[in-house]
Amino acid sequence: MIPPLDLKREYDYMTSDIDDAIRKCLGHQKWILGPEVSELEDKLALYLKVKHCIGVSSGTDALVLALRAQAIKLKGEEYFDRNDRIITTSFTFTATGDAILRSGATPLFVDIDPATYNIDTARIESYLTSSLKAGNKIVGIIPVHLYGQSCDMDEITRIAEKYDLFVVEDVAQAFGGEWRGKKLGSIGDFGAFSFFPSKNLGGFGDGGLLATNDDVLAELAGMLRKHGGKDKYNVDHIGYNARLDTLQAAVLLAKMKHIEDFNRRRRNIAKVYNKGMGTVKDLILPESAPEADHVYHQYTIRVLKEKRDKLQEYLKENGIGTMVYYPVPLHKMKVFENRCEIAGELSLAERASKEVLSLPIEPLLTEEELNKVVGTIKDFFAKDKGITEEVSCGRLHQ
Ligand SMILES: *Cc1c(COP(=O)(O)O)cnc(C)c1O
Hints:
The protein is 44% helix and 14% strand.
Protein backbone atom coordinates (compact mmCIF):
# COMPACT_ATOMS: atom_id res chain seq x y z
CA MET A 1 0.00 0.00 0.00
CA ILE A 2 1.33 3.44 -0.92
CA PRO A 3 -0.43 6.01 1.28
CA PRO A 4 -0.75 9.70 0.37
CA LEU A 5 1.31 10.46 3.46
CA ASP A 6 3.06 8.21 5.99
CA LEU A 7 3.56 9.96 9.32
CA LYS A 8 4.78 6.78 11.01
CA ARG A 9 7.60 6.54 8.49
CA GLU A 10 8.54 10.14 9.25
CA TYR A 11 8.54 9.52 13.01
CA ASP A 12 10.73 6.45 12.56
CA TYR A 13 13.13 8.64 10.55
CA MET A 14 13.53 11.22 13.34
CA THR A 15 12.63 9.27 16.48
CA SER A 16 15.47 10.38 18.72
CA ASP A 17 15.09 14.10 17.88
CA ILE A 18 11.41 13.98 18.77
CA ASP A 19 11.69 11.72 21.80
CA ASP A 20 14.42 13.94 23.26
CA ALA A 21 12.29 17.05 22.70
CA ILE A 22 9.27 15.50 24.42
CA ARG A 23 11.37 14.17 27.31
CA LYS A 24 12.68 17.70 27.91
CA CYS A 25 9.09 18.91 28.40
CA LEU A 26 8.35 16.04 30.77
CA GLY A 27 11.32 17.29 32.79
CA HIS A 28 10.26 20.92 33.11
CA GLN A 29 6.40 20.54 33.15
CA LYS A 30 5.80 24.06 31.75
CA TRP A 31 2.84 23.05 29.60
CA ILE A 32 1.24 26.43 28.88
CA LEU A 33 3.35 28.89 26.85
CA GLY A 34 6.47 27.11 28.05
CA PRO A 35 10.02 27.82 26.83
CA GLU A 36 9.59 25.75 23.63
CA VAL A 37 6.77 28.04 22.43
CA SER A 38 8.93 31.18 22.54
CA GLU A 39 11.90 29.25 21.16
CA LEU A 40 9.80 28.18 18.17
CA GLU A 41 8.38 31.69 17.72
CA ASP A 42 11.89 33.20 17.72
CA LYS A 43 13.21 30.55 15.37
CA LEU A 44 10.36 31.01 12.90
CA ALA A 45 10.62 34.82 13.05
CA LEU A 46 14.23 34.43 11.88
CA TYR A 47 13.32 31.80 9.28
CA LEU A 48 10.46 33.85 7.84
CA LYS A 49 12.31 37.16 8.33
CA VAL A 50 9.45 38.80 10.24
CA LYS A 51 9.41 40.83 13.47
CA HIS A 52 6.82 38.77 15.34
CA CYS A 53 5.57 35.19 15.49
CA ILE A 54 2.69 34.15 17.73
CA GLY A 55 2.08 30.45 18.32
CA VAL A 56 -1.63 29.56 18.36
CA SER A 57 -3.82 26.49 18.69
CA SER A 58 -4.54 25.79 14.99
CA GLY A 59 -4.40 27.23 11.50
CA THR A 60 -8.09 28.02 11.73
CA ASP A 61 -7.56 29.95 14.95
CA ALA A 62 -4.60 31.75 13.34
CA LEU A 63 -6.98 33.03 10.63
CA VAL A 64 -9.71 33.97 13.12
CA LEU A 65 -7.28 35.82 15.40
CA ALA A 66 -5.72 37.63 12.43
CA LEU A 67 -9.12 38.86 11.25
CA ARG A 68 -10.28 39.81 14.73
CA ALA A 69 -7.04 41.76 15.28
CA GLN A 70 -7.64 43.56 11.96
CA ALA A 71 -11.20 44.47 12.99
CA ILE A 72 -9.99 45.88 16.30
CA LYS A 73 -7.15 47.80 14.67
CA LEU A 74 -9.08 49.16 11.66
CA LYS A 75 -12.55 49.73 13.12
CA GLY A 76 -12.04 49.88 16.84
CA GLU A 77 -14.72 47.17 17.02
CA GLU A 78 -14.45 43.62 18.28
CA TYR A 79 -15.83 42.18 15.03
CA PHE A 80 -16.36 43.15 11.42
CA ASP A 81 -19.98 43.37 10.28
CA ARG A 82 -21.77 41.71 7.38
CA ASN A 83 -21.17 44.68 5.09
CA ASP A 84 -17.43 44.24 5.44
CA ARG A 85 -16.40 41.96 2.62
CA ILE A 86 -13.21 39.93 2.57
CA ILE A 87 -12.02 38.60 -0.77
CA THR A 88 -10.86 35.00 -0.99
CA THR A 89 -11.06 31.85 -3.09
CA SER A 90 -13.89 29.35 -3.02
CA PHE A 91 -11.44 26.54 -3.85
CA THR A 92 -9.86 26.05 -0.43
CA PHE A 93 -10.38 24.29 2.88
CA THR A 94 -13.54 25.35 4.75
CA ALA A 95 -11.53 27.05 7.48
CA THR A 96 -10.56 29.96 5.21
CA GLY A 97 -14.18 30.99 4.68
CA ASP A 98 -15.30 29.94 8.15
CA ALA A 99 -12.74 32.29 9.73
CA ILE A 100 -14.22 35.19 7.73
CA LEU A 101 -17.72 34.35 9.00
CA ARG A 102 -16.47 34.06 12.56
CA SER A 103 -14.85 37.51 12.31
CA GLY A 104 -18.31 38.88 11.44
CA ALA A 105 -17.44 39.70 7.82
CA THR A 106 -18.80 38.32 4.54
CA PRO A 107 -16.64 36.13 2.29
CA LEU A 108 -16.45 37.44 -1.27
CA PHE A 109 -15.48 34.52 -3.43
CA VAL A 110 -13.49 35.11 -6.61
CA ASP A 111 -12.80 32.40 -9.18
CA ILE A 112 -9.43 30.71 -9.66
CA ASP A 113 -6.69 30.73 -12.24
CA PRO A 114 -7.11 27.22 -13.71
CA ALA A 115 -3.35 26.84 -14.20
CA THR A 116 -2.37 27.32 -10.54
CA TYR A 117 -5.76 26.76 -8.77
CA ASN A 118 -5.03 29.97 -6.85
CA ILE A 119 -7.26 33.06 -6.81
CA ASP A 120 -7.34 34.87 -10.17
CA THR A 121 -5.96 38.34 -9.47
CA ALA A 122 -7.32 39.80 -12.72
CA ARG A 123 -10.83 38.89 -11.63
CA ILE A 124 -10.24 40.42 -8.18
CA GLU A 125 -9.61 43.83 -9.64
CA SER A 126 -12.41 43.81 -12.22
CA TYR A 127 -15.01 42.78 -9.64
CA LEU A 128 -13.62 45.06 -6.96
CA THR A 129 -13.89 48.20 -9.05
CA SER A 130 -17.53 47.58 -9.95
CA SER A 131 -18.41 46.55 -6.40
CA LEU A 132 -16.82 49.67 -4.92
CA LYS A 133 -18.68 51.81 -7.48
CA ALA A 134 -21.92 50.24 -6.23
CA GLY A 135 -21.00 51.51 -2.76
CA ASN A 136 -19.93 48.19 -1.25
CA LYS A 137 -17.27 47.93 1.40
CA ILE A 138 -14.31 45.62 0.90
CA VAL A 139 -11.78 45.48 3.72
CA GLY A 140 -9.26 42.77 2.94
CA ILE A 141 -7.97 39.82 0.94
CA ILE A 142 -7.03 36.32 2.06
CA PRO A 143 -4.84 34.78 -0.62
CA VAL A 144 -4.55 31.01 -0.09
CA HIS A 145 -1.29 29.49 -1.32
CA LEU A 146 -2.98 26.28 -2.38
CA TYR A 147 -1.08 22.98 -2.62
CA GLY A 148 2.11 24.81 -1.58
CA GLN A 149 2.29 27.26 -4.44
CA SER A 150 2.34 31.01 -3.97
CA CYS A 151 -0.46 33.21 -5.26
CA ASP A 152 0.62 36.09 -7.48
CA MET A 153 1.80 38.24 -4.58
CA ASP A 154 2.94 41.10 -6.85
CA GLU A 155 -0.64 41.63 -7.96
CA ILE A 156 -2.19 40.95 -4.54
CA THR A 157 0.13 43.51 -2.94
CA ARG A 158 -0.48 46.07 -5.68
CA ILE A 159 -4.27 45.69 -5.46
CA ALA A 160 -4.20 45.80 -1.64
CA GLU A 161 -2.20 49.02 -1.65
CA LYS A 162 -4.29 50.65 -4.37
CA TYR A 163 -7.64 49.91 -2.69
CA ASP A 164 -6.42 50.05 0.91
CA LEU A 165 -7.12 46.41 1.80
CA PHE A 166 -5.39 44.29 4.40
CA VAL A 167 -3.79 41.00 3.35
CA VAL A 168 -3.88 37.87 5.52
CA GLU A 169 -1.97 35.10 3.77
CA ASP A 170 -3.36 31.60 4.34
CA VAL A 171 -0.05 29.74 4.44
CA ALA A 172 -1.50 26.52 5.90
CA GLN A 173 -0.31 24.52 2.88
CA ALA A 174 2.85 26.40 2.02
CA PHE A 175 5.31 26.38 4.90
CA GLY A 176 8.74 27.20 3.45
CA GLY A 177 7.37 28.31 0.08
CA GLU A 178 8.49 31.59 -1.45
CA TRP A 179 7.51 34.34 -3.85
CA ARG A 180 10.51 36.07 -5.48
CA GLY A 181 12.77 34.84 -2.69
CA LYS A 182 10.47 36.06 0.11
CA LYS A 183 9.04 33.45 2.45
CA LEU A 184 5.28 33.09 2.16
CA GLY A 185 3.54 34.43 5.24
CA SER A 186 5.96 37.37 5.46
CA ILE A 187 4.48 39.42 2.62
CA GLY A 188 0.96 40.31 3.83
CA ASP A 189 -0.04 42.02 7.08
CA PHE A 190 -0.32 38.57 8.60
CA GLY A 191 0.75 35.07 7.59
CA ALA A 192 -1.48 32.35 9.08
CA PHE A 193 0.18 28.94 9.38
CA SER A 194 -1.19 25.53 10.35
CA PHE A 195 0.76 22.74 12.03
CA PHE A 196 -2.00 20.15 11.50
CA PRO A 197 -0.17 16.79 11.36
CA SER A 198 -0.43 16.43 7.58
CA LYS A 199 0.95 19.87 6.69
CA ASN A 200 4.53 20.29 5.45
CA LEU A 201 5.53 21.19 9.01
CA GLY A 202 3.08 19.26 11.15
CA GLY A 203 2.88 18.60 14.88
CA PHE A 204 1.43 15.67 16.82
CA GLY A 205 -1.95 17.34 17.08
CA ASP A 206 -3.38 20.76 16.28
CA GLY A 207 -1.26 23.88 16.18
CA GLY A 208 -0.78 27.09 14.25
CA LEU A 209 1.14 30.35 14.06
CA LEU A 210 0.76 33.98 13.05
CA ALA A 211 3.61 35.95 11.51
CA THR A 212 3.58 39.75 11.20
CA ASN A 213 5.80 42.81 11.01
CA ASP A 214 3.13 45.04 12.57
CA ASP A 215 3.65 45.76 16.29
CA VAL A 216 0.00 46.65 16.94
CA LEU A 217 -1.37 43.56 15.20
CA ALA A 218 1.17 41.34 16.98
CA GLU A 219 0.15 42.69 20.36
CA LEU A 220 -3.57 42.23 19.60
CA ALA A 221 -3.09 38.66 18.38
CA GLY A 222 -1.02 37.91 21.47
CA MET A 223 -3.86 39.18 23.66
CA LEU A 224 -6.61 37.37 21.74
CA ARG A 225 -4.86 34.01 22.05
CA LYS A 226 -4.99 34.23 25.85
CA HIS A 227 -8.47 35.44 26.73
CA GLY A 228 -8.16 38.95 25.27
CA GLY A 229 -5.86 40.79 27.61
CA LYS A 230 -2.22 41.37 28.46
CA ASP A 231 -3.33 40.47 31.95
CA LYS A 232 -5.30 37.24 31.92
CA TYR A 233 -7.25 38.35 35.00
CA ASN A 234 -8.22 41.79 33.61
CA VAL A 235 -8.98 41.65 29.90
CA ASP A 236 -9.69 44.20 27.14
CA HIS A 237 -11.10 42.16 24.26
CA ILE A 238 -13.36 39.19 23.56
CA GLY A 239 -10.63 36.61 23.54
CA TYR A 240 -10.00 32.91 23.14
CA ASN A 241 -8.04 30.17 24.74
CA ALA A 242 -6.01 29.62 21.59
CA ARG A 243 -2.41 29.04 22.61
CA LEU A 244 0.07 26.72 20.95
CA ASP A 245 0.84 23.82 23.31
CA THR A 246 4.37 23.58 24.69
CA LEU A 247 4.46 19.92 23.69
CA GLN A 248 3.53 20.72 20.08
CA ALA A 249 6.15 23.47 19.97
CA ALA A 250 8.76 20.95 21.14
CA VAL A 251 7.79 18.46 18.42
CA LEU A 252 7.79 21.24 15.80
CA LEU A 253 11.25 22.43 16.85
CA ALA A 254 12.56 18.90 16.34
CA LYS A 255 10.82 18.60 12.96
CA MET A 256 12.09 22.04 11.86
CA LYS A 257 15.57 20.51 11.55
CA HIS A 258 14.26 18.45 8.65
CA ILE A 259 11.94 20.89 6.90
CA GLU A 260 14.36 22.08 4.20
CA ASP A 261 15.32 18.50 3.42
CA PHE A 262 11.67 17.40 3.36
CA ASN A 263 10.54 20.26 1.13
CA ARG A 264 13.42 19.40 -1.23
CA ARG A 265 12.25 15.79 -1.26
CA ARG A 266 8.74 16.94 -2.17
CA ARG A 267 10.13 18.94 -5.09
CA ASN A 268 12.06 15.89 -6.23
CA ILE A 269 8.91 13.78 -6.13
CA ALA A 270 7.25 16.42 -8.31
CA LYS A 271 10.15 16.13 -10.77
CA VAL A 272 9.77 12.36 -10.96
CA TYR A 273 6.01 12.68 -11.54
CA ASN A 274 6.47 15.45 -14.13
CA LYS A 275 9.03 13.41 -16.02
CA GLY A 276 7.05 10.18 -15.82
CA MET A 277 3.66 11.54 -16.85
CA GLY A 278 4.54 14.39 -19.18
CA THR A 279 3.22 12.56 -22.21
CA VAL A 280 -0.02 11.13 -20.77
CA LYS A 281 -3.00 12.51 -22.65
CA ASP A 282 -6.05 13.61 -20.65
CA LEU A 283 -3.84 14.59 -17.71
CA ILE A 284 -2.76 18.09 -16.82
CA LEU A 285 0.25 18.23 -14.52
CA PRO A 286 0.75 21.04 -11.99
CA GLU A 287 2.34 24.21 -13.29
CA SER A 288 4.66 26.31 -11.22
CA ALA A 289 5.00 30.07 -11.75
CA PRO A 290 8.66 31.07 -12.25
CA GLU A 291 8.48 33.56 -9.33
CA ALA A 292 7.09 30.91 -6.95
CA ASP A 293 9.11 28.36 -5.04
CA HIS A 294 6.51 25.58 -4.86
CA VAL A 295 6.75 23.30 -1.79
CA TYR A 296 4.28 20.69 -3.11
CA HIS A 297 2.13 20.23 -0.05
CA GLN A 298 0.16 18.38 -2.70
CA TYR A 299 1.10 17.17 -6.15
CA THR A 300 -2.26 17.64 -7.83
CA ILE A 301 -3.09 16.53 -11.33
CA ARG A 302 -6.16 17.40 -13.33
CA VAL A 303 -7.90 14.45 -14.96
CA LEU A 304 -9.96 15.37 -18.03
CA LYS A 305 -13.07 13.80 -19.57
CA GLU A 306 -14.71 12.83 -16.28
CA LYS A 307 -12.17 10.09 -15.65
CA ARG A 308 -11.02 11.36 -12.26
CA ASP A 309 -13.15 9.10 -10.08
CA LYS A 310 -12.39 6.05 -12.24
CA LEU A 311 -8.66 6.74 -12.04
CA GLN A 312 -8.88 7.18 -8.26
CA GLU A 313 -10.73 3.87 -7.97
CA TYR A 314 -8.18 2.10 -10.20
CA LEU A 315 -5.28 3.45 -8.12
CA LYS A 316 -7.02 2.32 -4.94
CA GLU A 317 -7.46 -1.20 -6.34
CA ASN A 318 -3.73 -1.18 -7.01
CA GLY A 319 -2.84 -0.09 -3.49
CA ILE A 320 -2.24 3.60 -4.17
CA GLY A 321 -3.96 6.13 -1.94
CA THR A 322 -4.97 9.48 -3.42
CA MET A 323 -7.09 12.39 -2.20
CA VAL A 324 -9.44 14.97 -3.66
CA TYR A 325 -8.76 18.49 -2.35
CA TYR A 326 -11.48 19.76 -2.52
CA PRO A 327 -14.60 17.98 -3.74
CA VAL A 328 -16.98 20.86 -2.87
CA PRO A 329 -16.09 24.53 -3.39
CA LEU A 330 -17.04 26.71 -0.42
CA HIS A 331 -19.86 28.59 -2.16
CA LYS A 332 -21.67 25.23 -2.63
CA MET A 333 -21.68 24.45 1.09
CA LYS A 334 -24.73 25.02 3.27
CA VAL A 335 -22.79 27.06 5.80
CA PHE A 336 -21.98 29.73 3.20
CA GLU A 337 -25.49 29.79 1.71
CA ASN A 338 -26.82 33.36 2.06
CA ARG A 339 -23.67 34.24 3.91
CA CYS A 340 -21.31 34.87 1.01
CA GLU A 341 -21.04 37.01 -2.07
CA ILE A 342 -19.97 35.60 -5.41
CA ALA A 343 -17.88 37.62 -7.85
CA GLY A 344 -19.63 36.70 -11.07
CA GLU A 345 -19.13 33.03 -11.85
CA LEU A 346 -17.09 30.44 -10.02
CA SER A 347 -17.18 27.92 -12.83
CA LEU A 348 -13.43 27.27 -12.86
CA ALA A 349 -13.44 26.40 -9.16
CA GLU A 350 -16.45 24.14 -9.73
CA ARG A 351 -14.74 22.41 -12.63
CA ALA A 352 -11.51 21.95 -10.67
CA SER A 353 -13.41 20.27 -7.82
CA LYS A 354 -14.50 17.58 -10.30
CA GLU A 355 -11.11 17.07 -11.97
CA VAL A 356 -8.34 17.35 -9.39
CA LEU A 357 -6.55 14.41 -7.81
CA SER A 358 -3.67 14.61 -5.36
CA LEU A 359 -1.07 11.84 -5.66
CA PRO A 360 1.07 10.36 -2.85
CA ILE A 361 3.59 13.00 -1.75
CA GLU A 362 5.13 11.45 1.37
CA PRO A 363 8.68 12.92 1.34
CA LEU A 364 10.14 9.53 2.30
CA LEU A 365 8.60 7.57 -0.58
CA THR A 366 11.15 5.43 -2.38
CA GLU A 367 11.99 5.63 -6.06
CA GLU A 368 10.36 2.23 -6.50
CA GLU A 369 7.12 3.45 -4.95
CA LEU A 370 7.10 6.58 -7.11
CA ASN A 371 7.67 4.49 -10.22
CA LYS A 372 4.77 2.30 -9.23
CA VAL A 373 2.47 5.33 -8.99
CA VAL A 374 3.57 6.57 -12.42
CA GLY A 375 3.36 3.11 -13.97
CA THR A 376 -0.12 2.45 -12.61
CA ILE A 377 -1.44 5.77 -13.90
CA LYS A 378 0.04 5.05 -17.33
CA ASP A 379 -1.55 1.56 -17.25
CA PHE A 380 -4.93 3.10 -16.52
CA PHE A 381 -4.77 5.37 -19.53
CA ALA A 382 -3.35 2.64 -21.79
CA LYS A 383 -6.24 0.32 -20.84
CA ASP A 384 -8.72 3.15 -21.06
CA LYS A 385 -7.50 3.87 -24.59
CA GLY A 386 -7.80 0.17 -25.42
CA ILE A 387 -11.42 0.14 -24.26
CA THR A 388 -12.30 3.25 -26.24
CA GLU A 389 -10.76 1.78 -29.39
CA GLU A 390 -12.56 -1.52 -28.97
CA VAL A 391 -15.84 0.29 -28.68
CA SER A 392 -15.27 2.41 -31.75
CA CYS A 393 -14.11 -0.66 -33.72
CA GLY A 394 -17.30 -2.44 -32.67
CA ARG A 395 -19.34 0.43 -33.96
CA LEU A 396 -17.47 0.41 -37.26
CA HIS A 397 -18.32 -3.23 -37.87
CA GLN A 398 -21.99 -2.84 -37.07
C1 LIG B 1 -5.35 23.05 6.96
C2 LIG B 1 -5.84 24.33 6.46
C3 LIG B 1 -6.39 25.31 7.29
C4 LIG B 1 -6.72 25.08 8.75
O1 LIG B 1 -5.71 24.64 9.54
P1 LIG B 1 -6.05 23.80 10.88
O2 LIG B 1 -4.73 23.81 11.59
O3 LIG B 1 -6.48 22.46 10.48
O4 LIG B 1 -7.06 24.56 11.64
C5 LIG B 1 -6.74 26.53 6.74
N1 LIG B 1 -6.58 26.78 5.44
C6 LIG B 1 -6.08 25.86 4.59
C7 LIG B 1 -5.92 26.20 3.15
C8 LIG B 1 -5.71 24.59 5.06
O5 LIG B 1 -5.23 23.68 4.21
